[in-house]
Amino acid sequence: MKEAEALQAFSALSGETRLRMLRLLVVAGEGGMTAGDISAQTDAAPSRASFHLSALAKAGLVSATREAKQIRYHVRFETLGELMGYILTDCCQNHPTVRSCCLGDQGC
Amino acid sequence: MKEAEALQAFSALSGETRLRMLRLLVVAGEGGMTAGDISAQTDAAPSRASFHLSALAKAGLVSATREAKQIRYHVRFETLGELMGYILTDCCQNHPTVRSCCLGDQGC
DNA sequence: TTAATAATTCAAGAATCATTGAAATGAAAG
DNA sequence: CTTTCATTTCAATGATTCTTGAATTATTAA
Fold first, then answer.
1. Contact B10 A14 (CB under 8 A)
2. Domain count, chain B
3. CATH number at residue B62
4. With a cut of 50, which residues of chain A have pLDDT below it?
């Protein structure tokens, strides 16, 4: 991940509504969620939801696929992993204090 | 780390100047850097550097200590580790794809 | 084709953030 | 005590970003 992409990802994650949307999509898992469901569950008007979802999509944090009349969104864990890698390696040069976040529950 | 702190951190990292400042401080290591050095090495006027450094400090990503006439800044790896933990655990629920970023060079 | 539904795009104004230069603060030296 | 140096704070302007509602596109059904 390049600096420009990381900046875009940080920017996309730095809004309350967008972070909540992403977390909703994480909980939704494989099934994802439609734009309408996301709009409803975040109390954001459709145009506002669409605006924020497209910011997340532009940053590669979510993907969108049309499904009949609706558009279904999925979280893209790959990009989140790359962002983690950027922070850990490019930004923090693998500093052990940062790296220690990896020592959680299910090890690695 | 709470959501509000994570948002503040993402916000602090979502600017080119601030990300560059943080990376400078990572490279500087234990010694840290003075506000003047950071200002000079980023081509940012002193007031501008001060503005961005205080945003980083407010997010807990850097610390500041006065040293005679100068103020020395250090990166706070702890906060960066907590941010990584937030993304991995709170945000992504330890999803293996995100977790795989931990499998780099010096293992864990 | 027409109507209905789901979502996006657009335009306007509101709100927030960044930049600049000048003034103020804090610390050391003469 | 005054001056100088390093940095921050302040105020004004400029630039982005966010929000809202209306108009538009895309899809399906009647």
1. yes
2. 1
3. 1.10.10.10
4. 107-108
